[in-house]
Amino acid sequence: MTDAGQTAPDFTLPRDGGSSVSLSGLRPGKVVVYFYPKDDTSGCTLEAQEFTALAPQFAEIGTTVIGISKDSVKSHDKFCAKHGLGIVLASDEGATTAEDYGVWKEKNMYGKTYMGIERSTFLIDGEGRIARVWRKVTARGHAAEVLEAARTL
Fold it and tell me: Which family is this sequence assigned to (predicted)?
């Protein structure tokens, strides 16, 4: 499991808009990497909207926000357009990055067990180390809490 103090696993993933995003390419800036289960679901939409609303404040403190799910780039593009999102959404269709960060978990819903992304957030400093980790995140208000933590780095 990936924890605070460790080097953040690097990744290069396709992103909304058709380009790609690489964690190492964002250094020496700070990065918020948040994993979420699915585009256009209620909790995931709320979380993305809250990060979008605070995007200018994250930018002021040199912090990039990246949301990662297994959804395709096409799905991300629709999600961004529908809700006016202004953050990077990366596609991890094979869940390899989710596995690297320890957020690809066995889940249970309505008595059925399946593998899925556990809503989690990682705050990464300018040297590529994980400064803070939030697991089993509740979407409402989370972006503001992450912004406050990013301000202290």
Answer: Belongs to the peroxiredoxin family. BCP/PrxQ subfamily.
